[in-house]
């Protein structure tokens, strides 16, 4: 009896999750693809902001330093959900106004671009702190040596600072990437069809809440575990030739 | 300075690539959550329902190149004013409150608001009958405004992001009743899941809150677009397209003068 | 804000903090900030505040209440989770590790929805539950919110506690053992206090992260401060003002949390 019920239940779930239309698996995977696209974009955008932010905080003038302190403090104190709403509505409004002033006319901003912009700004604040810590951990002698040889600042960053700080930055960046993948779920609140919203739509249409939420959870978990493995390799590569650290902090 | 140059280029590219999409299309905003039988996503990832077909028909009649763009319901007006969409066609009633922020086309459907509750419950759509009960409503709707005005003192109002979640909680018994659109609710109580519940009747009309039917919302001052929406709606009402679509979904007309 | 913060982090007296603020560029920035605040106060719409103030206070109270309760419960749960992972046998450590991985590997929003709507969808299939004594609580939304946030905090903090238990000096434990101290006393007197002291610097940050997670429970009808701002937005169609005020509220709470934990840390003997 029990056995029958279970196989029946599972068969039902499998049908709901199948990839072709009567099943909603295709929708979930499309949502996952959207989520990943945004997570990648936001992570990259955040890294870019973080790199400039870290440099600004370390070597910038007093005004720039204070402005960056305001940026990182505000972003890290206000819930992502609130930031997403503010940035989502303000950001697109602002870009449209700027582009109108510059004479380009109205700009169409796709959901993906808006999502990357919103999460990227959030990620940037955390990335600034991670990268600043990592740059500070690079022994100053290496940078001074490069300067003494007359290396231009950009080349110094590319050839010395970034490679040397990689090993210190990787654990923090890995954590940031995981936050990026999970934060994409918040875009469901503004109606962007990423994995969580697709899941909710499928669950609401079929009433199989448990099946779909668990399936989506499994997808997120797979992403997390896979990226954990990838980052472990990156960290190993970044640390090549270095004595092993005692313990990497969170 | 190289860094500065790089940054400017990056920003410029971002704006350019975002702007590469042609700005000719009219973005019709619908709620991103399922709202059967008006608009819901099917398993192949396409939007379907009465309202979706009406949108397509209106756009065809008005000769507009429309793109259906789902956005979160409770942010749909900010999305319109923030230019992420150009028209709202998401079963939004024309109310004075909303008209202070956006403009509306002529109505394209009009249905009463009803109270739905469990069959075993002795509930009538009056404030007295709902006293002490938990009433679930969808955020940012005329029903929320109405429930706050008439039931707010006596009943506990619980606010949901989507009507679908309120329905779900009505089935699970977490709320005693919900107020919503009669057609959407008829569809719900006729479904397997909604079999527990029945329509207890329409609430007393208050046009100031419940509005004058459902229209297409446009930005204030976007008169050209409003006019072409009006033209499209008039045309499908005239040539029978509206009636034909309605006939495929409902037993009765849902357009009342 | 930034100026104030860096002044505090220098751990200096009020006089020094004042001096740090009085640098020319900071005076200019403060003046600009003041200008922005005045512009916001004059140019934006704030006439809705009196009407919604009581509701907002209620929401604020609920946010703080949920934050405190879930942090305390979550931390209590994190101790056994950390301990199981650090020294437990495999049949305890494996489930603890899986729990932490799952909680940390999936979005909190999904967890909240799974708990609320997933469990809710089971109720119609279990008729007796509506006549049980738990039903009045199961009808409310806050038990699910508290449960979801507690599990989330426990998941993250359990991972931190694992490291903290592992890093306690083994010599002290051996010494206690040599004195014949019972195992539980040893845990209570030596191991746990040191582990907690080790995690104290991270606790403040984790609690702020938890604060930032609280608005998610508004999606399951809990009326906390974020839900109140949504209500204002939907009632009046004013978009930015409630959100800006909300952000300020969260910054103030986060600032208070940071200050409290710093005070607390200073008092604990190092």
Structural write-up:
The complex is a heterotrimer of chains A (250), B (257) and C (270). By secondary structure, chain A is mostly helical. Helices cover 79% and strands 0% of the residues of chain A. Chain A has 9 helices and no strands. The C terminus of chain A is likely disordered. Chain B is an alpha/beta fold and 257 residues long. Chain B folds into 2 domains: 122 residues, Periplasmic binding protein-like II (D-Maltodextrin-Binding Protein, domain 2); 98 residues, D-Maltodextrin-Binding Protein, domain 2 (3-Layer(aba) Sandwich), CATH 3.40.190.10. Chain B is built from 11 helices and 12 strands. In chain B, the strands form 3 sheets. Chain B has a 5-stranded mixed beta sheet. In chain B, α2 packs across α10 and α2 packs antiparallel against α11. The longest helix of chain B has 18 residues. With 270 residues, chain C is mainly alpha-helical. Helices cover 80% and strands 0% of the residues of chain C. Chain C is flat, with a radius of gyration of 23 Å. The chains are: A mainly alpha (250), B alpha/beta (257), C mainly alpha (270). Chains in contact: A-B, A-C, B-C. The interface between A and C is large, with 46 and 50 residues.
Task: Briefly say what this structure is.
Chain A is an all-alpha fold and 250 residues long. Chain A is built from 9 helices and no strands. Chain A is 79% helix and 0% strand.
Q: Write the H/E string of chain B, N to C.
A: HEEEHEHEHEEHEHEHEHEHEHH
Number of domains of chain B: 2
What proportion of the residues of chain A form beta strands (DSSP E)? Answer: under 5%
CATH fold description of chain A: MetI-like fold
Number-wise, the strands of chain A total 0
Number of helices of chain B: 11
Mean pLDDT of chain B: 87
**Coarse structural class of chain B:** alpha/beta
What is the C-alpha radius of gyration of chain B, as a whole number of Å?
20 Å
- Rg of chain A: 22 Å
One letter per element, helices H and strands E, the order of chain A comes to HHHHHHHHH
Superfamily (CATH H level) name of the largest domain in chain B: Periplasmic binding protein-like II
- Could you please say which CATH topology of the largest domain in chain B applies here? D-Maltodextrin-Binding Protein, domain 2
- Chain pair sharing the greatest interface: A-C, 46 and 50 residues
CATH class categorisation of chain A: Mainly Alpha
């Amino acid at each position: 009896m029990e056995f029958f019920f279970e196989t029946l239940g599972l068969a039902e779930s499998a049908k709901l999750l199948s990839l072709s239309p009567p099943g909603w698996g295709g929708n979930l995977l499309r949502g996952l693809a959207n989520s990943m696209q945004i997570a990648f974009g936001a992570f990259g955008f955040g890294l870019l902001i973080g790199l400039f932010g870290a440099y600004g905080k370390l070597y910038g003038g007093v005004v720039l330093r204070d402005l960056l302190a305001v940026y990182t403090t505000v972003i890290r104190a206000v819930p992502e959900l609130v930031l997403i709403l503010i940035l989502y509505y303000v950001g697109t409004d602002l870009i449209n106004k700027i582009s109108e002033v510059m004479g380009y006319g109205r700009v169409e901003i796709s959901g993906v671009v808006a999502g990357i912009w919103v999460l990227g700004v959030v990620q940037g604040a955390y990335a600034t702190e991670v990268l600043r810590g990592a740059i500070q951990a690079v022994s100053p002698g290496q940078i001074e040596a490069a300067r003494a040889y007359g290396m231009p600042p950009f080349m110094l960053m590319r050839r010395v600072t970034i490679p040397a700080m990689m090993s210190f930055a990787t654990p923090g960046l890995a954590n940031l990437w995981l936050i990026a993948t999970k934060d994409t779920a918040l875009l469901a609140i503004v109606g962007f069809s990423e994995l969580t919203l697709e899941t909710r739509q499928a669950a609401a249409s079929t009433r199989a809440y448990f099946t779909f939420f668990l399936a989506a959870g499994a997808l997120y978990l797979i992403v997390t575990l896979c990226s954990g493995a990838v980052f472990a390799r990156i960290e190993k590569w970044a640390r090549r030739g270095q004595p092993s650290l005692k313990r990497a902090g969170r | 300075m190289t860094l500065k140059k790089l940054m400017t280029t990056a920003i410029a590219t971002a704006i350019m690539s975002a702007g590469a999409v042609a700005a000719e299309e009219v973005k019709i905003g619908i709620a991103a959550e399922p709202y059967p039988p008006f608009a819901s996503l099917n398993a192949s990832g396409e939007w379907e329902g009465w309202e979706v077909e009406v949108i397509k028909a209106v756009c065809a009649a008005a000769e507009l190149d429309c793109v259906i763009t789902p956005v979160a319901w409770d942010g749909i007006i900010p999305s319109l004013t923030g230019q992420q969409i150009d028209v709202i066609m998401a079963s939004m009633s024309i109310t004075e409150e909303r008209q202070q922020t956006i403009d509306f086309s002529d109505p394209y459907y009009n249905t009463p608001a009803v109270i739905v509750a469990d069959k075993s419950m002795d509930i009538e759509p009056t404030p007295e009958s709902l006293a002490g009960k938990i009433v679930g409503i969808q955020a940012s709707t005329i029903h929320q405004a109405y429930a706050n005005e008439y039931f707010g003192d006596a009943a506990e109002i619980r606010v949901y992001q989507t009507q679908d979640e309120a329905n779900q909680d009505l089935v699970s018994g977490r709320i005693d009743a919900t107020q919503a659109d009669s057609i959407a609710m008829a569809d719900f109580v006729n479904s397997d899941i909604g079999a527990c519940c029945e329509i207890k009747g329409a609430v007393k009309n208050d046009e100031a809150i419940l509005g004058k039917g459902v229209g297409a919302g446009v930005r204030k001052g976007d008169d050209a677009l409003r006019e072409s929406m009006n033209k499209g709606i008039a045309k499908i009402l005239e040539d029978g397209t509206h009636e034909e679509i309605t006939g495929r979904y409902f037993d009765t007309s849902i357009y009342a003068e | 804000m930034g100026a104030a913060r860096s002044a505090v982090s220098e751990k200096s007296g009020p006089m020094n903090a004042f001096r740090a603020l009085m640098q020319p560029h900071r005076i200019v920035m403060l003046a600009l900030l003041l200008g922005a605040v005045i512009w916001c106060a004059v140019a934006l719409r704030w006439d809705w505040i009196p009407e919604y103030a009581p509701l907002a206070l209620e929401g604020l109270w609920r946010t703080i209440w949920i934050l405190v309760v879930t942090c305390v419960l979550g931390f209590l749960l994190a101790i056994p989770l950390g301990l199981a992972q650090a020294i437990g046998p495999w049949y305890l450590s494996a489930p603890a590790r899986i729990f932490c991985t799952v909680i940390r590997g999936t979005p909190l929003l999904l967890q909240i929805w799974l708990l609320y709507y997933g469990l809710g969808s089971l109720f119609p299939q279990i008729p007796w539950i509506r006549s049980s004594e738990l039903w009045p609580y199961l009808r409310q939304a806050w038990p699910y919110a508290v449960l979801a946030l507690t599990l989330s905090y426990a998941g993250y903090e359990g991972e931190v506690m694992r490291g903290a238990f592992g890093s306690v000096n083994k010599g002290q434990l051996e010494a206690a053992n040599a004195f014949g101290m019972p195992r539980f006393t040893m845990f209570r007197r030596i191991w746990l206090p040191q582990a907690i002291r080790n995690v104290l610097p991270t606790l403040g940050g984790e609690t702020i992260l938890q604060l930032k997670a609280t608005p998610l429970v508004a999606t399951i009808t809990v009326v906390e401060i974020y839900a109140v701002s949504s209500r204002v937005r939907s009632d009046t169609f004013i978009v930015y003002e409630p959100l800006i005020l909300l952000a300020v509220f969260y910054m103030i709470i986060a600032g208070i949390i940071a200050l409290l934990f710093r005070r607390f840390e200073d008092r604990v003997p190092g």
